Design the sequence.
């Protein structure tokens, strides 16, 4: 498989994922062993260092430490998704006009870029990113790399309207006897998916989930347990390959996917 390197992302396209965790050292060891990541520390003004994960010296994901306030509220470690925007101030205003909530107004992170945090009408949180020196992941879809973002929501209609209005996303619904699945598209290219929450899922909040590609779904899923993580759902087949849902030792949930059809760059 050819390495899928990136040098830019379009407005409205997912560009980065990072982990907020309560144990940076343990998480660094877990993901390094599981996905083959190296880690580089980047200092932040007035805050804990930020770590950038790499494969072959190409940036693939990030990690930050949860602050005391996050820990005190009982917030679990979580993977975050970032969407590239050309004008973060305008996009943040647009998010509010489309029915979303601005959780954190745009702010600059040194010379790396500008960030804002919003939630959609169902409460799913996502970050907006307008890059300066850092545009996003330099490699995607290859084994060990981030490859997909998926919204779990209790309000499909409101979500479709919100993301369509904010980013111009179109949508295709997969018709099947199984759980309905919607694929978001930008410029006629798939960029993420959406599932409707079911009663069997309990009180899981609406959220964006993150997928990482692997070469062997069963072996990697088994390795999660060997490294102290948990299997939330064993490997199962979908239209594009095989998926498992797992969590790291600190409780951050993520998906693994072994593709049987070529991934869209």
Sequence:
């Amino acid at each position: 498989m050819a390495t899928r390197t990136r040098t830019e992302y379009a407005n409205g396209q997912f560009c980065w994922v990072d982990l907020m965790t309560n144990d940076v050292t343990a998480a660094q060891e877990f993901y390094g062993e599981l996905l083959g990541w190296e880690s580089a520390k980047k200092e932040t003004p007035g805050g804990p260092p930020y770590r950038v994960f790499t494969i072959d010296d190409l940036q693939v994901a990030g990690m930050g430490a949860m602050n005391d306030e996050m820990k005190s509220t009982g917030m679990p470690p979580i993977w975050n998704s970032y969407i590239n925007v050309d004008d973060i101030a305008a996009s943040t205003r647009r998010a509010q006009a489309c029915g979303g909530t601005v959780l954190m107004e745009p702010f600059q992170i040194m010379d790396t870029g500008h960030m804002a945090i919003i939630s959609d009408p169902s409460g799913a949180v996502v970050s907006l990113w307008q890059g300066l020196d850092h545009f996003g992941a330099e490699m995607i879809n290859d084994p060990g790399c981030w490859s997909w973002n998926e919204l779990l929501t209790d309000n499909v209609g409101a979500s479709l309207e919100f993301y369509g209005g904010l980013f111009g996303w179109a949508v295709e619904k997969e018709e099947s006897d199984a759980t309905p699945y919607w694929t978001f598209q930008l410029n006629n290219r798939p960029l993420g998916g959406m599932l409707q929450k079911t009663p069997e899922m309990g009180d899981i909040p609406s959220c964006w989930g993150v997928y990482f590609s692997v070469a062997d779904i069963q072996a990697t899923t088994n390795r999660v347990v060997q490294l102290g993580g948990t299997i939330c759902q064993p490997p199962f087949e979908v239209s594009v390959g095989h998926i498992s849902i797992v969590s790291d030792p600190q409780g951050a949930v993520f998906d693994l996917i072994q593709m049987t059809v070529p991934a869209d760059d």
Remarks:
- The chain has a mean pLDDT of 93.
- The chain has five helices and 16 strands.
